[in-house]
Amino acid sequence: MTKLIIAALAGLLVASGPARAHPHVWVTVKSAVVYAPDGSITGVRHAWTFDDMFSAFATQGLESKQKGVFTREELAPLAKVNVDSLKEYDYFTYAKTNGKKTPFVDPVDYHLDYDSKETVLTLHFLLPLKTPVKAQTLDLDVYDPTYFVDFALAKTDPVALAGAPAACKLTLGKPQEMSRDLARRLLEIPADQQIPADSYGAQFANKIAVKCP
Question: Reduced to 3 DSSP states, what percent helix, strand and coil does the chain have, rounded to the nearest 5?
Answer without folding.
Answer: 15, 40, 45
